[in-house]
Amino acid sequence: MYFFHAVKQRLSALFLIIILILIWEIVADHLNMPYMFPSPSLILFKLFDIHEILFYVHLPATLTVVGIGLALSTILGVVLAICMHLFKILERAVYPLLVTSQTIPIIALAPIFVLWFGYSIWSKVVVTILITFFPITVNTFDGFRSVSSEQKEWFLTAGANKWNLFTKLYVPSALPSFLSGLKIAIPLSVIGAAIGEWLGANAGLGYFSRRMMTQFDGAGVFAPIVWLSLIGITGFLLVTIIEKYGFKWRRTR
């Protein structure tokens, strides 16, 4: 019964996507303004037409930015979450700053990073870190805080020391929350990379989209966006699969 229910949900989502694409196609054909509002079929043809330069030149550049930025953001976020968990004074000092940092529009800071780092990869990496750092840190820290006092007392009664508490209670409790933060951070990392490339780069999907805009090529603007969307969806699905098969105990409980 569960299998058929899941299949029904996926078919419903697929049906809705097809309907929306058909509406888009009809409206775009009616307006007949491909330089501003290209149809899905025109975008698809453009993807095939420029697939070599996108796949072999600009896609690797964007994936490099996303990979480095997400890796550094994960390391820094997890380390900071652990430090805030261990030192309450650090939590009280840093947590408000984390929240405040999210009120600053990243797109306003991106040109500053271009001035500091030039058109190198690091200006895009810093933008990606800033936009993904918050969900990883906060979700991981909330995972540490989800441990109840009853659980902690049970471990202490069993003779656990501080290291046992951290590795066998706090870390397993925080892992699901960490993965939830990572699922949010992956699409955001794609956005951060695209913003950085849009404002200053020599290669990348965001850079190519901006270049096509200056040529009034509507399909060329949308074609890299399709790849950006695929990167975010693929990363999200990978983390979802890890969460589904690596944390069966969580669903059972």
TrEMBL record:
Main location: membrane
ABC transmembrane type-1 domain span: 59-243
PROSITE patterns referenced in this protein's UniProt entry, alphabetically: ABC_TM1 (PS50928)
Record-annotated membrane-spanning stretches: 12-33, 53-82, 94-119, 125-144, 221-242
Cellular component terms per the entry's GO annotation: plasma membrane
Record has Zinc as a keyword: no
Membrane topology, record value: Multi-pass membrane protein
GO biological process: transmembrane transport
InterPro entries linked to this entry: MetI-like, MetI-like_sf
Location relative to the cell: Cell membrane
UniProt keyword annotations, A-Z: Cell membrane, Membrane, Transmembrane, Transmembrane helix, Transport
KW Cell inner membrane (keyword) present: no
UniProt record similarity statement: Belongs to the binding-protein-dependent transport system permease family.
Protein name as annotated: ABC transporter permease
Organism: Alkalihalobacillus trypoxylicola
